TrEMBL record:
Keywords: Ion channel, Ion transport, Membrane, Transmembrane, Transmembrane helix, Transport. The chain crosses the membrane at residues 21-37, 49-69, 183-202. It comes from the Eukaryota. This is Calcium homeostasis modulator 1. It comes from Zoarces viviparus. Residues 259-279, 310-335 are annotated as: Disordered. Its main location: membrane.
Amino acid sequence: MDKFRMMFQFLQSNQESFMNGICGIMALASAQMYSAFEFSCPCMPEYNYTYGIGLLFIPTIWFFLLGFVMNNNVSALTDEWKRPTGKRTKDPTILRYMFCSITQRSLIAPAVWVSVTLMDGKSFLCAFSIDLDLDKFGNYSLLTGLSEVEKLRLLARIPCKELFEHHEIREAASRYIKCISQACGWMFLLMITFMAFLIRAIRPCFSQAAFLKTKYWSHYIEIERKMFDDTCKEHAKSFAKVCIHQYFENISGEIRSFHHHRSGKGDSDDEDEDSRRSDEEKLLGIRAQDDMNKVLWNWHASKPALALRKDQVDGENNGRLNGEANGAANGFAKGHTPDVEKREWAVYYSKV
């Protein structure tokens, strides 16, 4: 159990590495899925092109959407994009950074699928076999005396070795199309690698301060959302425990008195009291359903401004809040608390 706990803590502290690992697993899964997939070209002029191109692009779109579904930052991005402005402004650069980060990870598995499919060449052969010129692959032509429909049917059977009689011509045509497919695959890999190199090389040319600011606040949005969910869970758990305890105490006071009269339960009662105090502290002063609903609604409709307050008594200012930002966050004009009229007090001491 300790090993699993350490692994879980490592994944929590290294969420970015964890997401990269998931993307790598998805990429390997896409390659393994293609190797286990049984490719069966229909060998019909009406369906060859649709089947071949569909096999190339439809799983690519599926892997791309699956990458978005498995990324935890999608919900944080959507929440930040759709939330009301309220007291906290929205920065479009942060939204763009989060979207680009999610998209980059989601493109890994589709890129692997396209590369493996093009390197294998079966889908390319199925899609473009009807466009071949068989005169290039033999000393005689098989299309002599055939109508246009029969020619297309004959060319569509090239991917199916059971249906095409001339083995040598079929082998030559298959190798020709597979060579073109592999060339397209290498060009695709070269283009993807070159684009990744440009992104890595151009990024330092821009302001690193702006990049670090955007990265910081995107991480903040993600962590804030997670901690808010955890706090809500803790509050709900404590609220339920206190509510259940009060219910049983109101229904029957004999249960509590029975436990008090039992011998040897002093330590247990102390532990129960400490647990109850802990639950009371986790309620954070919110003890009614309407109050909790109001808190949740205000969090969604008007998130607090990112200007932390430090409420402390200042000896020189007689307990005023520190700074204009803190006062403004509390709704006071110009960031200051209203002046309170001072009163003089006289204290008389008697020697009696």
